[in-house]
Structure formats: C-alpha cells, structure tokens
Design goal:
Length: about 210
C-alpha cells in the first residue's frame, strides 16, 4: 500500500503528513497510539501545528476511517462488479482483491476492527461496511445464476474466510495462497476455473481487471 502523499508541506508539516503518521501508528500499535503529542514528536513538529489542519483529534480519526473505507470496502465492491466472462473469473477477480496488498489494506482492516472494540461509532461503521460488502458479493453471485438463498450462503463463506485470514493474522507466502486459489474458487462457486483463467489471474494484478488478454 503506497503511503499517503505529501502535498501542502511547510514548517507546520501537512495534513497528509499528519494522516500518514496517524495511519502508521494505528496499524503498528492500535488506536490508543493515535494521539496528537506523540505524533507531533514523531514528525518533529509542534503540537499546535496540528490545529492548522484539524479541529481536534476526532477530525483526524474521521480521516482515518475514511481512508479505511477507501482502501478496503471500495476496492472490494469494485472487484465484485468487475467485468468477467465466467463466474470463476469473477471469483478470481474478487480473491485477487484480497491477496494483493495494494488493493485491500489488510493491516488497516485488522487495526480498524480492533479500534471498533473500543469505539461504538467505529463498530457501527464496520457493521455497515460488512453489510455493503456482503451485498456486493451476493449481487455478484446472483448475477451468475445462484438463487438468493444460495448466493447469501456462498457470499458469507467467501467473506468470512477472507476476514478470518485477516483477523487470525494468518502468515502465508503469496505462492502458498496462489496455489490454493483454484480450490477456493471451486468451493465458493461450485465450478472449477479453467487453466487459462488461473494463468491469467497469476499474470495480472487486480488494477488491470478486465484489461488482460
């Protein structure tokens, strides 16, 4: 995942710099580490410079919550609606979203779920995101002919498997996960992906959905 770029830099730093520091603190130590003074010390800025960019800590936390949505929910929904010639290819699009760190920020997802255990408002945002994500998966599966009931169970199987990977902080090499992909696709869809689809999946990063030969 690329760092948040600096844009309006100066002796007070920049809004993006404060957000990036907060992001790093959140994924490294949790929400309790996202505090103005420690971030200022890390950035070698005065505490008062924070208030040039944010009204208070709450506004910074709102920005972090927005980044979480942009780096997790948005790409998942994009993957679920991406062009595919077959259902198995559609599922490969979706699985690819979770595998590549530049399309789904798993570290941020883990950190925000931990944050939700301490903040009811964030927990509500997580519940809303879960519902949107599952709805996108159900819609995708229904589009390929599954009944609403079957699509719901399959969507939950897909989603809970992937979130389980994140919540349990499973450590696997990329190659190990890739080797299991054909079996996951068959379990999730009831269909076996064609060898050419697997070859294409391995060759193409998710940002090229629908553009690979």
């Amino acid at each position: 995942m690329k760092p948040i770029p600096e844009t309006a830099t100066g002796w007070r730093g920049s809004r993006e710099g404060w957000i990036e520091a907060a992001y790093q603190a959140l994924i490294r130590e949790g929400i309790d580490a996202v505090k103005i003074m420690p971030l200022a010390e890390q950035l070698k800025l005065s505490r008062t410079s924070f208030y040039w960019f944010f009204k208070d800590r709450g506004e910074l936390l709102e920005a972090l919550a927005g980044i979480w949505s942009e780096r997790t929910t948005a790409p998942l929904i994009t993957a679920a609606s991406a062009f595919a010639e077959t259902e198995t290819e559609a599922m490969l699009n979706l699985i690819g979203c979770f595998i590549w760190p530049d399309t789904f920020d798993a570290r941020l997802e883990f950190a925000v779920r931990g944050w939700g255990l301490k903040d009811p408002a964030i927990l509500a945002l997580i519940a809303e995101a879960d519902a949107r994500r599952l709805s996108a998966l159900r819609t995708m599966l229904e589009r390929w002919g599954h009944s609403p009931e079957d699509a719901d169970v399959r969507a939950r199987t897909v989603y809970l498997t992937q979130i389980g990977y994140i919540s349990m902080q499973v450590i696997e090499t990329t190659e190990t996960r890739l080797a299991r992909v054909p079996n996951y696709v068959e379990i999730f869809t009831g269909r076996t992906p064609a060898p050419r689809e697997i070859a294409r999946f391995r060759a193409c990063r998710p940002e090229a959905w629908g553009a690979c030969p």
